[in-house]
Every structure is written in C-alpha cells, then in structure tokens.
Amino acid sequence: MTELESPGGTAGLAGRQVARIGFGAMQLERSSASHEDRLAVLRQAIEGGVNHVDTAQFYGAGLANSLIRQALSPYPDDLVIVTKVGADNLPDGQLALRQRPAELRTQVEANLAALGVERLEVVNLRRGDTPPGLVAEGEQVVDIDSQLAELIALREEGKIGGIGLSHVSADQLRHAQPAGIVCVQNAYSVLDRSSEPVLELCREHGLAWVPYFPLGSALELGWDVTGNPVVTGIAADLGVTPAQVALAWLLVHYEGTLLIPGTANPAHLAENLAVGAVRLPAEAIAALDLAASAAR
C-alpha cells in the first residue's frame, strides 16, 4: 500500500507501516445497525485503505472480535489488528478490571481464539490507576512490573508481537520503556491535554500515539469537542465537519499519531477516512492549540 492510498498517510506501529486513520471496533457493539451492516462497514474500511484495526475481546463480550473475523478473515497480509487486555466481561455483561498476570494471559488467549490467529500483532495493557473509567481496587491493584513480565513472556512465546500501554502516566511509560513499548493509548483531544507529558515521551522515543476520546465523551467526560465554538467556527470556514477538524488537528499535532475512530455508519466512515485530506491553515492550528485553555 502506498502512502497516497493510505488514509492520513502512514506511520510506524510495532515495526509495520499502517495508515494513520484506522478503525476502532468498540463502536460496533454500541450500534443498532444490523449484523450484515456491521460486517459491511468493516469491509468498507479495509477497501478504503485502513490496515489498522483496534479491538478487544471485552468489546461487546466478544462481539467486536467475532465481527472482525467474520468480515475480514482470511486477513490481508498488511492488516495490523491491535487488541487490549486488563478488563473482562462479567456474567451480566458489565465490565470489570482483570489486572492480575494470569488474567492477562487468559485474555490474550481469548483474543487469539476469537480472532483465529496464532499471534496478536500488538496487545495494549489497560491500567486501572485513575479515572475516567474503571479504577482498580483490592486484588486488582497490581504492580505494572508483574504485568509487563507476563506480557514479555507471551511475546517470547510468539503469542504477542508488540506491547502497548493504555491509560498510563508519563512516569509509568518511562518506567515501562525497557520492556519495549511500541504504542500508547490515552484520552487526548483538542480540549483535553492532560496526557501531554505522555505524548512528549512518545515523541522523544518515536512511539505510536493512539488517542482515545478524540472528540471527547459526553458519557465519560461530560463534554463534546464537536460543540466547541472554536472547532465549529473553523469547520464552517473550511466547509468540513467539526469532527473532521478535531481529528485533523490530532494528525497535525504529532506525526506518530494513529487515529482509530469507529462507526457502523458507512457515511460516517467515509467522513472519517477523508480527514487526511483536510488541510488546516496555520491560524486554525494556532486557535486549536489554544482551545483547551480557553475552554477551562
């Protein structure tokens, strides 16, 4: 795949070159679309140049991985499927943190089986130290060294390619670096720069940066980037959507950024894939750079 065919261009991930605009499978579980429509949107993403899909076995209690396998297997040679461990589904369908090393191994095995692969290209460890989202308590308070040791063992066994981190601090990333971290997933957007120190470390070490909640989250954070007047004003000037402006700013902000917007809507997917063609003028970038402090 050439860079011109890759939405958003390309960047490195675990030694592979992937399109900077990928696909996040989490939204598939939340969609009211039919089963066939969800399969179709996954295929549309790949046909549109996406070769980086982000998922987890606990997304929809296995639904996301099942859809990926049904839609895309046998997988294209250039497809990088990234999974996440650190949580699992309870019998009632609710999520709970599962942070202990043996539990991480069980989750890796579950992802392997569900996706029908012998090796997971990248596995992200989702820590549970701070909100938003689940916070570890009791026996689920586990030191990161024990977790990394288990993931390293799985890597040595050939079941994992790269190890990533999710929901971590700069100190945790710095401490984990000797394990060979390849990417970081943290909440980050035009309006939420709390993970800027983590991003700076990614820049320093050339790590892939995969922001989640790139448009905010009314559910988790109580606000939505696409309603910000700076974002909506720039969108109106450029004739694009506020979401496209917010995502385009993330691509400009660091060349190692990989986006994983998710949807089950074909039109919305096309809008996401077109973000790489959005050109933000210098004055728009400057205004967006200042938007976080103006919103506080």
Automatic annotation (TrEMBL):
CDD domains: AKR_AKR13B1. Residues 20-289 form the NADP-dependent oxidoreductase domain. PANTHER family: AFLATOXIN B1 ALDEHYDE REDUCTASE, ALDO-KETO REDUCTASE YAKC [NADP(+)]. GO terms for cellular component: cytoplasm. SUPFAM superfamilies: NAD(P)-linked oxidoreductase (SSF51430). GO terms for molecular function: oxidoreductase activity. The lineage of its organism: Bacteria, Bacillati, Actinomycetota, Actinomycetes, Pseudonocardiales. Pfam families: Aldo_ket_red. It comes from the Bacteria. It comes from Amycolatopsis panacis. This is Aldo/keto reductase. Keywords: Oxidoreductase. Gene3D superfamilies: NADP-dependent oxidoreductase domain (3.20.20.100). The keyword Plastid does not apply.
